[in-house]
Amino acid sequence: MSTDSASQREFLVVVNDEEQYSVWFADRDLPLGWRAEGTRGTREECLAHIDRVWTDMRPRSVREHLAAHSG
């Protein structure tokens, strides 16, 4: 049995400038364009957090454009 399974690894919730969320390995450098959001845990815990906080899947730029041109 591998000790490197996803269930035993620690992950971070990361977010980009468009406010899109993902999970990333806690022991690796963050990919360019992404920053740690502050949540750390198992992959499942991180995905559950993302489900709670990422309620509008549209990229930030799209939301801002639509808000500026509505009404």
Tell me the layout of helices and strands.
Elements: E1 11-16, E2 21-25, E3 34-41, H1 43-53, H2 60-68
Antiparallel strand pairs: 1-2, 1-3
Provide a brief overview of the structure.
This is MbtH family protein. The protein has 71 residues and is an alpha+beta fold.
Structure description:
This is MbtH family protein. This protein is an alpha+beta fold. It has one domain (11-68): Alpha-Beta Complex (Rubredoxin-like), CATH 3.90.820. The chain is 28% helix and 27% strand. It has helices spanning 43-53, 60-68; strands at 11-16, 21-25, 34-41. The chain has a three-stranded antiparallel sheet with strand order 2-1-3. Strand 1 (11-16) and strand 2 form a beta hairpin. The relative contact order is 0.21.
